[in-house]
Structure formats: C-alpha cells, structure tokens
Backbone:
C-alpha cells in the first residue's frame, strides 16, 4: 500500500472515529433531554386528565386527538373500576405506584407516570423506544454535514498528501537518473528535513560507488594496456615460429613462444588474483589462523627454487602466532614476497623469515640480501604495474600490489626498510591484535 | 638496410630483431632512451624503430631531441598507447609513422620499407637499375624477365648498391648496412657476397673500384 493510500486510510479512520464519538455523545445528550421532556409531558398529560375528569366534562376525545404520540392514558376509581382507557394495551401493568417508573413489557420498555388525585388513579405511559428514535434521528441529522465533510476531506487529503510526497518522487527521479557512468551527488539544498538524511546517505553511497567504479575502470584500462606487451610478444613469436625455415629455427621459435605464453598466462593469473582481492575478502576474515604453520607451509613450497639458486632460507617461526583472516589470501601475500626475495637475491644469498610478537601483535619479517629498494621508491613499488627501472626479469608488476591489497583488507601494516645488517630489503608485516 | 630498434621488453625486442633480420634488415637493438641516443650518435641508420615507453629517457623525449638537433632520420613509433591523442602527439613530435601494439611482423616490415622508399624519394615499390629490378617487398630480383634467386644478405647488398646507384660504397659502409651489432661478420663476408652476386647477375654489373669500394655500372 502506498504512503498516500495509507495516510488517507488512517486520517479518514481517525476523522470517522471522531465523528462517531461526537454522534454518540449527541445521541446521549438528546436521550437525556428527550427523557426530561417526555417525562414532563407525561406528567402534564396526567395533570390535564385529572382536571378534565374532575370537571366531569367529557373532553377526553379532543385530548386524544391532540396527542399524536403513542400515549396511553388510563384512569381508575379508587375502588379499581376502570374509568377511562385511551386504548387498551394488554401488556401494560394494571396499576403502578405513584411517580415515574420504567416497566418492562412484551412490547418493549415503557415509561409510566401515575398519580392519585380526587379518588381517581391516573396513569400515563409511553414506550421508551420513541425517545430512542428521536435521539437517533437528532444525532443523525446533526452528524449528516460531518459525513459530507468527510468525503470532501478524503479528496483533500489525497491531494495534500500527494503534494507533500512530491519531494520524494523528485528524489526518486534524481536517483533514477544516476547510472554507473554518472554518479554525481544529489542536490540536498532544497530537500525537506525528513528526506535530507536519506539523500545524504545516498550521496555517501554514490560517492563510494563512484570511487569503486573509477578504481575498477582504471584497473581495466591498466590491465588492457599491460596485456598489450605480452600479446605483442606472443604475436611476433608465433609469426617467427611460423616463418622458421629450418628445424632448429622452429624449435627456437617455439621455445620463445612458450616463454611468451608463460608470461601472458602469469599476467592473466595475477590480474585475476588482484581482481578477486579487490572484490574483497572481508566475509572470510573471521577464521583463526595459525600464522606459524602457514609461514612454514609457504616456505617449504618455495624451498626448492631457493635451493636451486643456492640461496639459504632461514626460518624462525616457532611459537603460537594466531591471526584472523583468509588463509588462502595470506598464503598468496607471504608467497609473493618470498617469490620476490628469491628472484632478486643473488646466488649464495640468504633470506630470513622471522616471526615475533611486539605489543601483543604478531610480526612477520622477511629480509633478503638482494639489491634492496631505495627509500623514494618504497611507496611506489606497491602500485599496480609499477616496475622498477632496470629490474631484471619480466615480472608483471602486480606481485606487490596484490600483497598490499591483501594486507590492507586484513588490517596488516606493511613496512619496507633496509635489511638490519648489510645490503638487502626487509618487508615487515604487523598483524592486528586479536581478541582472544 | 640498418635500423635501430629501441624497445625495453626483451621478448618483443628479440622477436622483432629476428623477424626483421629475416626480412633482410640489419637490426641494432637497445633497451632504453639513453642507449638509443648514443647509438644514433655513433652509427648511421636508415630508420629508427622507437617504443615510447622505454626507461631512462622516454621515447617522445628522444624523438623531440632528435628533431631539435635536425636529425632527418625516419622514425616509426611503436607503442602500446593507441589513443588518437597519443598518436597525434607522437606524429607532432616528429614521428613519420605510428604502429600500435600488438602489431604484425609483416606490417612492420612493409611500413619500414615504405618509409625507406619515401626517404629516398621513390614512389615505386620496385628499384630499377638498367635491366635489373629489385622488389624489396617480395625480395625478388629480376634481370629483364628472368628471376634471380638471391639470399637475404645478397639481396640486401644489392639493395644498398642500387639505393645509391652511381656512388661508390666502401666495404665498411656495406658491412654497416648489412649487419647488426650482434652479428658475426667474417672479414671477407662482403667479398664473398659480391662474388656470389656476380656469378648470378653477370660480371659487369658490380664494378670494383680498387682501394675504394663497389658500385653498380651500366654495361
């Protein structure tokens, strides 16, 4: 049901109730006054009858004509002999005590007035429902204009509420005009106070959406740009393999092609990984993870490669270091850093992985004996597709961006610095304190 | 024809070098802007293949400085940036042509040939000298109606001679046009190619000017 219909219904119900209450009170007031009036009348008729009967003149007929209400007049002598009966009502009791009385009969309730005077017993009676009818008709007549008013009011309410709701329609229109390409804020200045919080909340959402869309668009543009390089290489390599005149050339051509494919595949995989991380892992952040065994696990995966390069992998990860997070994401984060360390550490170098606790927070240090990263570049290396000038290898420039992204979603602080002793890079992850 | 390739990506650089060498070009390959400038200073090239996104000094700056120094070398820009604005900037900075990545090796060769042809003032795709016609696109050499099968190096040598018909080219000049840096050159390689060419084309077409070099001569 629309707000308009609902308001109309409720307002009309309230007004109807008010009219009904007024009607009932008018009815009651009218009943009281009718009672007083008719009681007085009963008495007056009885007195008139007494006068006429005692005058011995017989003008009862004319009296009866005067009274067109449903009156019954009964006159008895003291001995109980019926002197006069206006019209017989079997249901009425023969004689009652003097004064007013309400008598229940087969024909409903009657109000009876009786008096003794001059050897006669005079009794006047009238059915009560006449009074009820009178009160009802009075109440209805009083309330009739109010009912007409009610109908007019309904039409008025319909239009007024519609007018009152117009800002809401305009707000809806403004929201409908927005689309992923057009997410500018909704003007709040002319909105009524009730809609301002809604518009503000919407604007906040629009702003966040706009930022997310821009990030995503930049990401796609960057990705498309970055894909060109491996694709260009692939196309050229394929053409070379195609053109090869001798078996040796062909073998060489295909080995180049395979290298190119490997690089393109790696880039696509990392793009997907990053996109997945950008989409957020917050819903899986609740799991409790034993960092020590996770680190040991990742190291053992990278050990063969390090060994092949003659790099010494020293690990100090014993103890209980529990963190909260997504085990898969953290494995990628640590794995990427160790990957880089293995790639940039020269032969016979060393990589140290140390877990420790500082102020109740788990800290993971990974240091290598590679060339290190100069201070001014330490922030930029986390940018997507940032490749250090003159860096060896054909990395995608996404590895550290993925690391940073995962660290951020886990509330992990990342710090790059020089190795404590000698040349090399140290990357420190400080995990948030967890409630036990 | 000797060209300088400036491309930082190892895979692309390697492939372009191999592919172009296959098409008879001598290719020198550098991976950054500074190295490109020093190569341009020390050697003479028929054409510069320039990737804009190279380290140390970006391609646009290399191009701007080149034109500021009145170097007329033909420049073919290779780049991953293919928005129209980027192309306009590239061409306005003095590029002669523009090829967006990913590109086709055949198209690259064709564009290089077209640029070189335009540079030497020819509009025809074939080169002529007396009865001899060379088609750099198809690598066909003909004397009259007769096809002469030539190796890539032989064709390149003949192309160099016909390109500057009437002038005498020294052995060193010919070597420079025929071989890139990384190619091993035998001390008598040019003589061997000349010997083979004379066998295929007849003795009189290439004349040896003793102590100076070689030239084409009308019989």
Residues:
């Amino acid at each position: 049901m629309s707000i308009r219909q609902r308001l109309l219904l409720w307002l009309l119900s309230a007004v109807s109730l008010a009219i009904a209450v007024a009607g009932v009170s008018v009815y009651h007031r009218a009943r009281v006054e009718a009672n007083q009036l008719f009681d007085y009348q009963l008495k007056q008729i009885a007195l008139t009858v007494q006068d006429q009967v005692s005058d011995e003149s017989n003008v009862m007929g004319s009296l009866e004509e005067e009274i067109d209400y449903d009156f019954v007049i009964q006159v008895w002598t003291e001995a109980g002999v019926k002197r006069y009966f206006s019209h017989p009502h079997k249901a009425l009791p023969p004689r009652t005590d003097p004064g007013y009385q309400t008598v229940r009969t087969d024909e409903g309730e009657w109000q009876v007035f009786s008096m003794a005077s001059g050897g006669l017993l005079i009794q006047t009676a009238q059915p009560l429902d006449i009074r009820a009818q009178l009160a009802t008709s009075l109440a209805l007549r009083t309330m009739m204009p109010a009912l007409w008013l009610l109908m007019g009011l309904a039409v008025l309410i319909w239009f007024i509420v519609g007018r009152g709701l117009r800002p809401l329609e305009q707000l809806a229109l403004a929201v409908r005009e927005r689309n992923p390409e057009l997410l500018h804020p909704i003007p709040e200045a002319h909105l009524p106070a009730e809609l301002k919080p809604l518009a503000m909340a919407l604007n906040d959402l629009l702003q966040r959406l706009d930022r997310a869309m821009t990030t995503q668009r930049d990401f796609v543009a960057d990705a498309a740009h970055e894909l060109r390089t491996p694709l260009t290489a692939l196309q050229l390599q394929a053409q070379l393999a195609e053109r090869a005149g001798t078996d040796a050339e062909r073998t060489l051509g295909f080995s180049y092609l395979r290298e190119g494919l490997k690089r393109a595949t790696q880039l696509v995989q990392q793009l997907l990984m990053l996109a997945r991380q950008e989409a957020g892992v917050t819903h899986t952040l609740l799991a409790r993870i034993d960092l020590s065994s996770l680190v040991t696990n990742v190291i053992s995966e990278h050990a063969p490669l390090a060994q092949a390069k003659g790099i010494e992998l020293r690990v100090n990860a014993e103890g209980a270091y529990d963190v909260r997070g997504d085990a898969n994401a953290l494995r990628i984060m640590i794995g990427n850093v160790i990957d880089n360390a293995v790639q940039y550490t020269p032969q016979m170098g060393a990589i140290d992985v140390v877990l420790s606790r500082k102020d109740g927070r788990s800290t993971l240090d990974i240091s290598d004996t590679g060339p290190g990263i100069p201070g001014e570049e330490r922030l930029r290396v986390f940018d997507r597709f940032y490749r250090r000038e003159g860096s060896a290898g054909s990395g995608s420039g996404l590895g550290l961006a993925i690391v940073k992204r995962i660290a951020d979603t886990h509330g992990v602080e990342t710090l790059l610095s020089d190795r404590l002793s000698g040349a090399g890079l140290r990357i420190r992850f400080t995990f948030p304190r967890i409630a036990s | 024809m000797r060209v300088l390739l400036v491309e930082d990506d190892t895979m692309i650089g390697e492939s372009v070098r191999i592919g172009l060498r296959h098409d008879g070009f001598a290719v020198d390959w550098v991976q950054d802007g500074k190295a490109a400038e020093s190569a341009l200073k020390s050697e003479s090239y028929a054409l510069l293949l320039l990737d804009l996104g190279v380290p140390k000094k970006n391609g646009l700056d290399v191009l701007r400085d080149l034109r500021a120094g009145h170097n007329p070398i033909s420049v073919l820009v290779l780049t991953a940036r293919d928005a129209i604005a980027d192309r306009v900037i590239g061409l306005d900075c003095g590029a002669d042509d523009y090829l967006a990545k990913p590109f086709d090796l055949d198209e690259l060769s064709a564009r290089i040939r077209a640029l070189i042809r335009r540079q030497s003032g020819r509009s025809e795709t074939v080169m002529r000298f007396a009865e001899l016609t060379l088609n750099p696109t198809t690598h066909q050499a003909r004397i009259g109606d007769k096809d002469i099968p030539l190796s890539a190096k032989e064709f390149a040598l003949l192309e160099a001679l016909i390109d500057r018909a009437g002038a005498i080219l020294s052995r060193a000049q010919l070597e420079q046009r025929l071989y890139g840096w990384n190619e091993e050159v035998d001390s008598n390689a040019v003589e061997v190619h000349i010997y083979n060419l004379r066998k295929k084309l007849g003795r009189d077409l290439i004349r040896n000017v003793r102590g100076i070099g070689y030239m084409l001569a009308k019989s």
